[in-house]
Design goal:
mainly alpha, single chain, Growth Hormone, Chain: A, globular, 19 helices
Length: about 450
């Protein structure tokens, strides 16, 4: 996506030493990867607090048995007031209402992804991303304010989740399109695997933050990630460069796409350019048009990878929103863990996801077969998930080991498809070399669920 604003972000004007020629293209590629990593990690940092506080908001049938954990760490125990739950989620239908919050968020999020992709294809991505991050931070804090305001109305929490889902949908199409602007194809699988660990890192940070302040009140579990997102949003506004063109660099993606054709068409191209120079501006404007939803689905490889991602994300999101609740309500070696312990323990799944994304990207680069890598990981995840369900409660070692392996095998193809595969497909020649179509393509065809 070429940026319409050719000026660098404010932070680079404040620190001229960060501009070229003092800093090279490689430096800014790394800087973009780091900033977008932080940006989307902060998006995911919020998605864990709802799962961490589920066992506090909802009905708790193990308030007595949880006391057996006191011999492990008495400071992790929850007070009886916490175990009482929070209306309207502590009644007989409490678990269903917690699920309705997830449904409200994910439904609006998936719909918003479609429209965010089209908006992202037509506005400045840095401004759009910052808008989404600030909105996310505000509504994350609003959810937490329900604790201090004593809100017990289901409609309030549903409304916050709906608006929050819209702001969340801004994040992914923006960051993946910006990274696509700066990255070439060489070692794309490994680089994207490393970069896409932001989802798991964000989940880990969100889990640790939310669990760490849980004893002071569940509202803090939302306020801290919200403040974090606003701070990172300011960093994005100050320092994120959307496209190499903004700093006078040539796009690595364009260079790779065009090298094979330059020699054979150079003379004819120069002739056409000299004869039709007056039409170039119109042509450039037309090239910025985003491909449509159905056109994206007709691109080779989109449909099978999209369906593959659907089922991979189905499992990943189930663990994302319900794993701490499941751990809290399942005795491990005969002991029901506390809310805080269950929340921190759930990060093992995301730690496996970090390694899985890197490993899948590296393997796909080595064998040059992203589809084969994805299917092998997914096939191995089936027995692993079954083993976790059957044997995960035997001991803490078995629980941690199987949870880590499940995260590795589930998030490996999830990471690979949403990054390296999506970028490969979005920059293929049938897209016409139009990098602005990348956000719409990735969004509409691969990242909805």
């Amino acid at each position: 996506m070429a940026s319409k604003n050719l000026n660098p972000p404010p932070g680079l004007n404040l620190f001229p030493s960060l501009k070229p020629p003092q800093k090279t293209l490689a430096f800014h590629q790394i800087l973009v990867l780091v900033i977008t990593f932080l940006a989307y990690a902060s998006f995911h940092a919020y998605r864990k607090p709802p799962s961490i506080v589920k066992s506090i908001l909802g009905p708790n049938d193990h308030s007595n048995s949880s006391l057996t954990e006191s011999n492990l760490n008495s400071t992790l125990l929850n007070s009886s007031s916490i175990d009482a739950g929070w209306a309207p989620f502590n009644g007989p239908r409490g678990t269903h209402r917690l699920g309705e919050l997830d449904l409200a968020f994910l439904s609006v999020y998936s719909i918003g992804m479609y429209f965010s992709g089209h908006v992202g294809d037509r506005v400045h991505l840095r401004y759009f991303l910052v808008f989404g991050m600030i909105g996310n931070g505000i509504f994350t804090i609003m959810f937490g304010l329900g604790y201090w305001l004593g809100v017990h109305v289901l409609g309030f929490f549903l409304a916050v989740q709906v608006v929050y889902g819209l702001f969340q949908s801004v994040g992914w199409p923006c960051v993946v399109a910006i990274v696509g602007n700066w990255s070439g194809k060489e070692k794309r699988g490994l680089i994207m695997g490393l970069w896409n660990s932001h989802t798991s890192v964000g989940n880990i940070v969100g889990s640790v933050l939310a669990s760490g302040v849980l004893e002071f009140g569940w509202g803090f579990s939302f306020v801290l990630p919200g403040v974090l997102m606003i701070v990172v949003g300011i960093v994005v506004f100050m320092f994120l460069v959307v496209s190499p063109d903004d700093l006078g660099f040539e796009s690595p993606g364009k260079e790779i796409e065009m090298d094979a054709e330059v020699d054979s068409v150079r003379s004819s191209e120069e002739k056409v350019e000299s004869e039709k120079a007056g039409l170039l501006e119109i042509g450039d404007s037309d090239s910025l048009a985003a491909i449509g939803f159905f056109e994206a689905w007709r691109l080779p490889g989109v449909a099978p990878f999209a369906f593959c991602l659907f089922f991979s994300k189905l499992v990943a999101y189930t663990f994302l929103y319900w794993l701490p609740f499941y751990i809290r309500h399942t005795a491990v070696a005969g002991v029901h863990l506390s809310h805080k312990t269950a929340g921190i323990l759930s990060t093992i799944f995301d730690m496996g996801g970090v390694l899985g994304g890197i490993l899948a990207g590296f393997i796909s680069d080595v064998i040059e077969a992203r589809a084969v890598t994805s299917i092998v990981f997914l096939l191995l995840s089936i027995p692993t998930l079954l083993f976790y369900r059957v044997y995960g409660s035997i001991s803490m070692f078995a629980n941690i080991s199987l949870m880590f392996l499940s995260g590795l095998l589930v998030n490996g193809p999830y990471s690979l498809i949403t990054t390296a595969v999506a970028t490969d497909l979005g920059t293929q020649t049938m897209v016409g070399g139009n990098s602005r179509a990348l956000a719409t393509f990735v969004l509409d065809s691969c990242c909805q669920n």
